[in-house]
Amino acid sequence: MKIKKNLLLGVTASLAFLLTLMSVASAYSLEWEGKINETLGIEGSSTSDEGDTDTQYFKSEFGDGTISEANQALLVAESKKQCYNEVAEGATLLRNRHNALPLAQTERKISIFGNNATNFVYLPSGGGEGNSVSADNSANFKACFDEAGFQVNPTLWNAYVNSGVKRAYSGTNASEDDIGEVPLSFYTDQIKSSFDEYSDAAIIVITRESGEGADMFMNYRDGKSKLALTDNERDMINMVTSSGKFSKTIVLINTTNQLELDWVEEYNIDSVLWVGSVGQWGALAIPDLLTGKVNPSGRTVDTWAANSLSAPACVNAGTNTPQYLNVDEIGQSIKDSVNTYAYMQTQVESIYVGYRYYETRYEDVILNQGNANSTKGAIQGSTNWDYAKEMCYPFGHGLSYSTFSETLESVTEDSETDTLKVTVKVKNTGTTAGKHSVLVYAQTPYGTYEKEHKVEKSAIQLVQYGKTKLLEPNEEETLELKVDKYLLASYDQYEAKTYIRSAGNYYLALGNNIHDALNNILAKKGASNLVDEEANPVTGDTSLVYEWAETFDKEKYSVTDYTGAKVTNVFEECDLNHFFDTPVVTYLSRSDWDATYPVSQTRVAATTEMIRLLKGDLYKTPADAPKFTDLKIGVNKGIKMIQLKDKEYDDPMREEYLAQYSLDDLAAITAEASGTKPIADFGVPHLGFVDGPMGVCSKMQFGSVKCTTFPSVPILTAAYNKDLLKRRGELMGEEAVFAKKHVVNGPGCNLHRTPFNGRTCIYYSEDANLTYLAVEAENAGMLSKGVTTAVKHFVGNDQEFMRTGVSVFFEEQGMREIAMRAFESSLNSTDNTLGSMMSFNRLGCVSDNNASYAKKLTRNEWGFHGFYQTDAAQHYSSYFVTELDSGTDIFSTDTTGRGGVAIAKYIKDNNDGYLYNELKETVHHIHYMMCKGHAMNGLSSTAKIVISTPWWQVAELSVIIALGVLTLGGAALLALNEFKAIKGAKVEG
Amino acid sequence: MKFNEVFKAHKFALIFQGVSFLLGLVAFLYTANVLNLMKLVPEQYTPSFIFIIVTLLLQVGYVVMLIKNIKFAEYLKFLIVIFGALGLSYFVTGSMLSIIDKIYNIVMWGDITQFPAIMVFGAFLLAAEGLNIATCFLKNE
User: Fold this and answer.
1) Nearest CA among A621, A617, A618, A664 for reference residue A910
2) How many Å apart are CA A230 and CA A218, to the nearest integer?
3) Which residues are CB-neighbours of A903 under 8 A, at least 6 positions away?
4) Do A92-301 and A617-688+742-947 have matching folds?
5) How far off is chain A from B69, nearest CA to CA, in Å?
6) Which of A16, A337, A873 is facing B81, going by the closest CB pair?
7) Which residues, in sequence order, are bridge partners of residue A566?
8) Which pLDDT does position A984 carry in this prediction?
9) Taking Cα atoms as reference points, which of A174, A168, A59, A154 lies closest to residue A111?
10) Which CATH entry fits the domain spanning A92-301: 3.90.190.20, 3.40.50.1360, 3.40.50.1700, 3.40.1010.10?
């Protein structure tokens, strides 16, 4: 049969086209092998074990190894209950005039206002930190009201649903971003007439959405920030409150960014309930909170200021972050994108983040010191700084449907543990059952020494908390809370260059919120003219204050309890002033608020030295480095990983085990792409990584169910309930185990340095101490299931704007007592966690991955044994050798293993035994972590790791071979055709 | 052979290749612009950039061979398809991280602002490749 030449050519070309596409796709898919395996639920390795020992080292509540359908349903139910409990206990009643809440049994016909109620935020944008929540896999906001017996105004609700107006979310461009609220003209007469029937209460939903890579805009519309009401929202609220149709007006705040709520008084709002973002099932708790089925017991974890831009951090933060003055000059030395080196953020606020600023300044106004009543930092139009004008709701504020009394029973010191035992009796003095959180605050002295040596002091700080059980009316419970006196030490970076205990009077205090507690302390100090956050005169309650005196001590905390190492300055190169002969930054100091409050951005031209550091290629082989070729490595002594399971961190067998690896094999372990690869020779199983902390995300499943998206972290934290935090950790751990994941990237330990932080939803609080106390419980929960938490993002990643490379400058005290404190309870010798994810930002000028602070501080000083991994993707040049030397253990999403290749090449080329030892130490950290987790489940001393080729790779190869054969066949036929044609032509010729 | 005679003899092939060339050229200019301006991941479009150049040169070569009436010109069409496919494939893989960002609505892996351009120029390259394949099916008029 004769085949037409053009048809043959066309078909062959089509086959060649498909073959080419398939070949490139196949090569690319190999790079993403881990992710594809993860998506398809393939492990890539299995365990062959004939031993009869119980190898389930970490027991599950829901079945060992595999999960049955019945247990799967139980786990879902537990996670659902957890979501409910988190919102039930964490949602915070900010305002409740005339006891408008709870709604009476007869008040069930309601109108829900706010177009965003139909587009409620369950999980803020970003997606990377929780599984997507959709109507079919979650408790829908409106459906929850229906199920709770409410009759929701259908005319209004349907009009919103059909409005066509949607929230437009933009991480980068304010003009493309839209709140998504409808204009006043939307409310037709027909809609307005529907209010009459559904007038028991107007529920107004105010929503804001931020997310990964996207801070809230500080300059959003008409000179206002995105935390202020927009015109459409203001018009809506005005319409509702001025209509006179509604018996009650209740506002639900559906965001984790602290809105500026100075308008609630203006519009005479009855009640305000902050619910944050509620995750998959948390919305179920909202109607129950409104009806009183659940008594609110949440307390704020942040300061809710009238104008959030009044926080001193805002001058150099978020979308206000300035650029270096000589960006072009810097660019001549650096080949990366300009955004990875152009921006500089100076934390001029020092320790004065959140309440530490507002409350300290208040005390200084009351005590008439430090020029605190200056206009600098005062809300626009104020003649003097006035706390009540600046504040809406202080840290620790939260109302209940009941009333509780706190009695400070006793405070006793335990010098052995260096703690104070605070005994507090709580009594429910109201008529409704409820839980109550007790927050213990402290004040340390700010005296002559501190002023002279620039040791800053917050007038008050949280030092411990606890929560009662559900107390019936008149029921009492006594809580015993341990306060670690280490939290009362201050870092003296200029004189003692270590932590000091200040001389003078110390105070522990209780209060309805942090401001109330401060007033109690001030009363104890004999101060007058005290006011609450609404400017009402108060006298303070001195019975809730414990006072004692301490002498000056610069030795006690100069050696750390974690390791016995000396505590001294390590961040000097992160202080911008380090690079200049005369200071270019004035850090905020309570010694003179007027002279030091930042009024303009800090901008400098980077010096030559700074540019060298910005470039980042910093490693040089030490002169005394041993020769790599002199080291004996790669001799297999038959030591398997399982043999190290119960060995101490510094057991000599670990050294022998690591020496078995060849250089290339050792280096390859530094690559992570949805996990690390199994190594059969040494019995190393696959290790699965997954993102968190809103859940075990990336569409992970246990059994046939997608892992749970839990409520936002601030809501969980606002419950001030460590049992709830631990349970979150346990359930995430359970889900991770059955999703075959060993490391969860979370919890998030960065701070709400400003309320504009795009990822407030994954970080606990503005307060370092609260983070320090809360994360410990969540880590412990996950660790109990054999899942490692990789606390993130270490460190200084307190904003999203230009996070990929922004230079973060700070002084040592601010870094140690604020940003680092939040990580300290995780990254220490107690193995409370064994992992951490680094951040994209720089510390000082140096890329975080290149900065050696992880090593200097957390390893040498705090004794951290776990691993450090880079953040997910490389946005600027990777100097793998420098990164390794600085403390990086795992190169995240290094799909091709280029980090390990570069490191091994450097070691060989430079015969660098020092770097080889660093590499070995890196694997030591990774494998120590593995030994302490559920990766060991199923492994006995006789177990073998079996590595299998995934089916999709076999399928890919088969298709490529088939296409190749067909293409070659087509080409052969073409050649034959041509040959025949030439031959025919010759014959004719 | 004069161009009008060539055009008459290979009308559809030349039209297809002309359109394909223009589509490829626009995509080339985009990737070149990305290389120059968006240094986020400098190497991400380099392979695509190279293969598109080769494809464009082959297309010019094809027309020259037709005009010069050089034998086996039609086999160049085969090579054009292969290099075009390489250009397209590497364009997609080079854009994948920005596409992932768009899917998850995050600013992390790639450059989300490039997503609309990626869709447009990806479509250009796909259309160009369709025309290249279609050219192979044409009879030697």
Assistant:
1) A621
2) 13
3) A667, A670, A880, A881, A884, A915, A919
4) no
5) 17
6) A16
7) A559
8) 80
9) A154
10) 3.40.50.1700
Segment A221-244 shows an average pLDDT of: 94
Q: Do B74 and A16 touch (CB under 8 A)?
A: no
Of A6, A13, A21, the CB nearest to B139: A6
Answer whether residue B47 shows pLDDT above 50.
yes
Q: Which superfamily, per CATH, for A312-596?
A: Immunoglobulins (2.60.40.10)
Q: Do A710 and A280 form a contact (C-beta atoms < 8 A)?
A: yes
Question: Which chain B residue is nearest to residue A214, measuring alpha carbons?
Answer: B107
d(CA A356, CA A358): 6
Which pLDDT belongs to residue A171?
65
Q: Which two tokens stand for residue B125?
A: 């390259």
Q: Which of A12-16, A157-161, A452-456, B15-19 has the lowest mean pLDDT?
A: B15-19
pLDDT of residue A698: 66
| DSSP for A480-531, written as a single string | EEEEEGGGG-EEETTTTSEEEB-SEEEEEE--SSHHHHHHHHHHHTT---EE
User: Bridge partners of A847?
Assistant: A842
Residues of A in contact with B79 (CB under 8 A): none
pLDDT at B36: 55
Over residues A360-381, the pLDDT tens digits come to 999 999 999 999 999 999 987 7
Residue A437's closest CA among A404, A476, A483? A404
Biggest CA–CA distance in chain B, Å, is 57
Domain A617-688+742-947: CATH class, spelled out? alpha beta
Going by pLDDT thresholds of 50, 70 and 90, the confidence category of residue A543 is very high
Q: Where are the strands (E) in A237-371, listed by range?
A: 249-254, 271-274, 304-305, 344-346
* Residue B114 per-residue DSSP state: G
Q: How far is CA A611 from the centre of its chain?
A: 30
Cβ–Cβ gap A24/B40 under 8 Å: no
A 873-912 → B contacts, CB under 8 A: 873, 875
pLDDT for A921 beyond 50: yes
Angle at B99 between CA A122 and CA A745, to 5 degrees: 50
Q: Residue A709 is encoded by which pair of tokens?
A: 């998206």
For the ranges A613-617, A620-624, A760-764, A862-866, the lowest mean pLDDT is seen at A613-617
Give the mean model confidence (pLDDT) for residues A161-167.
Answer: 93
- Which residues of A are less than 8 Å from B81 in CB distance? 13-14, 16-17
| Percentages (nearest 5) of helix, strand, coil residues in chain B | 80, 0, 20
pLDDT of residue A52: 62
Are residues A238 and A267 in contact, defined by beta-carbon separation less than 8 angstroms? Answer: yes
Q: In what order do the strands lie in the sheet with A437-443?
A: A461-467, A437-443, A504-509, A545-550
Q: Mean pLDDT check: name the lowest of A84-98, A460-474, A542-556, B10-24.
A: B10-24
Q: d(Cα A478, Cα B119) in Å, to the nearest integer?
A: 64
d(CA B52, CA B23): 11
| Average pLDDT of the residues of chain A | 93
- Report domain extents, chain A: 5-44+948-988, 92-301, 312-596, 617-688+742-947
Count of residues in chain B: 141
Question: What's the pLDDT at B41?
Answer: 41
Helix (H, G, I), strand (E, B) or coil at A798: coil
Comparing C-alpha atoms, which of A579, A698, A621 is closest to residue A907? Answer: A621
Phi, psi of A537 (to 5 degrees): -65, 135
What angle do the packed helices A722-738 and A69-90 form, to 10 degrees? 150
A491 contacts A817 by C-beta, under 8 angstroms: yes
- Tell me, what's the pLDDT at A875? 58
Rounded CA separation A602/A587 (Å):
11
Identity of residue A43: E
- Residue B94: pLDDT over 60: yes
